[in-house]
Amino acid sequence: MKKKRKEEVNGLQNQIANSGLTGELDASKSQDLSKIMMNIQAQYDELTRKNREELDKTVLLPIHSLLLQLEAELAWTQAEGQYQAQEYQALLKTKVKLENEISTYCLLLEEGKDFDFGDNVDHSNSMQSIQMVTSCMMVDGKVVSEGHPLGQ
């Protein structure tokens, strides 16, 4: 049995020698194997930490920069959306006001009442303006008659 064991050890030593693997131990035989393993683990942990730091520098900084850029674009888009919503509301109010004025003028024209231009003078500005109403009759998208209903 000792002979067989010795042959196995010699065979394994030959395999190690032929593989090109070399190993040296700086530890004396009296040193504890667990201490050696703890030292190797500490070296491995330090190497892992350094590699992670390097990876963070090369990968996470561009990702962080991209995230900051996307956040800025999102904020701009939100502000632009709010601005457009306010513009839309202003235009909608103007549309409603114009539709009401048109409705009033049409009612006046249908009733045949006299129209006083003095009512249409804009007193809110330093310049005076007169609003005039014209009528158009359209059939199938074509103007068939056009006139100034107030006698202009």
From TrEMBL:
Matches recorded under InterPro entries: Keratin_I
Coiled-coil features, chain-numbered ranges: 30-57
UniProt keyword terms in alphabetical order: Coiled coil, Keratin
GO annotation, cellular component aspect: keratin filament
Top-level division of the source organism's lineage: Eukaryota
Record GO terms (molecular function): structural molecule activity
Record GO biological process: intermediate filament cytoskeleton organization
Protein name: Uncharacterized protein
Biological source species: Cnephaeus nilssonii
Record lineage: Eukaryota, Metazoa, Chordata, Craniata, Vertebrata
